Write the C-alpha cells for this entry.
Amino acid sequence: MLRHGLLWLSERRGVYNFVRRNRLAWRMASRFVAGEAVEDAVQVALNLRTRDIGATVDFLGESVAAPPAALAARDKYLAILDQLHTENLEVNVSVKLTQMGFDIDENLCASNVCAIATRAKEHGGFVRIDMESSEYTQRTLDLYRTRVAPQFGNCVGVVIQSALRRSADDIQQLIDEGVRVRLCKGAYLEPQDVAFPKKADVDANFVALMERLLLKGNHPAIATHDERIIRHAQHFASQHGIAADRFEFQMLYGVRRDLQQQLRAGGAGVRVYIPFGSQWYPYLMRRLAERPSNVAFMVGNIMREMWPRS
C-alpha cells in the first residue's frame, strides 16, 4: 500500500510544485540527488573515483512537452559529457527518451540521442538509454535498434526491468544482438497483465535473467541493492568461471554505500547512478517506493538534524 501511494504521488504535478519549494523535502532528496547543477554531479563522480568506484550521471527530467525543453536537455547532457572529460573522469551518462522529446517527435528524440552518443563516443564514453514505464518498452527498443545501434554499437546500451513479464524474451534477443544491458527490477506502477504484482516473482525473474546475462551477455550491469541477489551473482559467476571484469554491479547514489565499498574492496566492478537537476521529486518518490524503509530512515536523520541531542 505504501509503495503504491508513493508511486502515485510521484506522478502528481501539483504535489511536486509544492514540494520543490520545501526545504525539508530537499533535505530528504539530497540523500539521493547530487544537487541541481552539473558541477554537483561531477563533484560526486570525483569523490567516487577516490574510492575506485565508477559513475553514470543522469540529468533528472522526463516527459517534456515542447521541443525547446528537449533541446535544452540535450545541451545539458553535452555539457555533462564535456565536463566529465575535462576532469579526466570516465564519461558515462544515462538518458531518458521522454526527456529527449519521445512524446513529441521520434525524429527529434533520435536526433538528440544521437547527438549525445556522438559526443560520448568522441570522449571514449558510453550512453545508457534508461527504460521508463511499460508503454515505452517496445518503442524504446525499436528506436535503439533502428536509429542508434547501427551508428554507435557498444557505445550505447539499454535497460531491462525484471518486473515486466515480457523481459525474458527481450533479454534473449538483446543477448543474441550483443547489446549491453543493465538489469534492474523496475520502479513504475504497472497493470498485472504486464508486470508481476508480487515482489517475490520480480526477484525470481531478476535472478533468472541475471544468470542468462552473466553467462552470455555483453558486460551486463546488475543494478540492485539486494545483498542476497548480489551474493548469488558472485557465487554463480565463480561457479561458471566468469571473471569479475565481465560484469559490474550498479547502485543508486546514497543507497548502501557500505555495500558499494565492500564489493569494490573484494574486486567487483561497481558503478553508482548519480542523478542531479531540479526535477528530483518524481525520482525521490520512486526511490522511496522501492525501499519504503528509506522513509523512516530519512525522516529519522532529518529529525536528528533539526533537534540534536544536547
About this structure: DSSP finds 13 helices and eight strands in the chain. The domain at 33-279 is CATH 3.20.20.220 (TIM Barrel). The chain has one domain: 33-279. The first helix runs from residue 2 to 10.
